[in-house]
Amino acid sequence: MEELRAARRVMGQGSVPAGEAYTVELRRHYRSPVDEVWDAVTNPERLRRWLKPVSGDLRPGGRYELDGGEHGEILRCEPPQVLTVSWLYGPEADAWPGTSEVEVRLSASPDGGTELELVHAAVLADPSFPTYGPGAGGVGWDLALLGLSRLLAGGDVVDHEEFETSPEGREFARRSAAAWGEAHLAAGGEPEQVAAAVEATTRFYVPDPE
Predict the structure, then answer these.
(1) Which of 43, 51, 119, 169 would suit a FRET pair with 72, their CA atoms being 20 to 30 Å apart?
(2) What are the backbone dihedrals phi and psi of residue 153, each rounded to the nearest 5 degrees, phi first?
(3) Tell me, what DSSP letter sits at residue 69?
């Protein structure tokens, strides 16, 4: 579970065009140089190996769609430092453009590696937040960045479905949910609410096999 310990998690607040938002932030150091990490997060052939297959007009102002149903617009692209996209799910999401945004920021570290910051901002009215807290999106991003780490280390394509149902994947998700609970507490969450959110997130990502 070195990957979980390597990442720093923060829950905060921000804004998107639809209004005030809560944010989940992941910060992670990679030994690979910035150009290598930028290519991994923007090159469709490499993106599919750690996240999901992507299609669409992959230029600023263009629209993209991931194989899992996530879709949106490329809002900002400044190679090799910043990529911002709207992040929506399902056809009904088009009625509320900008309710969720993901931004990836890259910067060079003194050792020649890369500091990655991923910020996912979603409107406070998102019905999943009161139930799941920051783990609603945070656990999914922990799983995704695990795939990115394996790709940068020269690993094979990550089969997310296979991994998430394996004993290793279930334990990873369980510990990720707990880690996001700690970030929620650090942000001022009420202990009882945080405990309930961690339990709900764990049940979602680690359902009873029976």
Answers:
(1) 169
(2) -85, 5
(3) S
Please enumerate in sequence order all residues whose Cβ is within 8 A of that of 2, keeping only pairs 6 or more positions apart, or say none: none
Burial class from Cβ neighbours inside 10 Å (0-12, 13-18, 19+) for residue 130 reads middle
Q: In sequence order, what are the residues at sequence separation of 6 or more whose Cβ sits closer than 8 angstroms to the Cβ of residue 187?
A: 10, 11, 12, 134
Instruction: Identify the pLDDT of residue 99.
Output: 75
pLDDT score of 129: 75
Assess whether pLDDT exceeds 80 at residue 157. no
Q: Which helix H or strand E contains 20, and what residues bound it?
A: strand 19-30
Q: Which helix (H) or strand (E) element contains residue 105?
A: strand 100-108
Task: Please state, in angstroms and rounded to a whole number, the distance separating the CA atoms of residues 85 and 83.
Answer: 7
Class of domain 2-205: alpha beta
Q: Which amino acid does the sequence have at 151?
A: L
Average pLDDT over residues 189-206: 95
Give the residue ranges of DSSP H helices in 153-166.
160-164
Q: How far apart are CA 13 and CA 124, in angstroms?
A: 9
Q: What is the pLDDT of residue 9?
A: 97
Structure token pair of residue 192: 């009882």
User: Rounded CA gap, 32 and 140, in Å?
Assistant: 23
Q: Which two tokens stand for residue 43?
A: 């090159």
**Residue extents of the structural domains in the chain:** 2-205
- Single-letter code of the amino acid located at 59: R
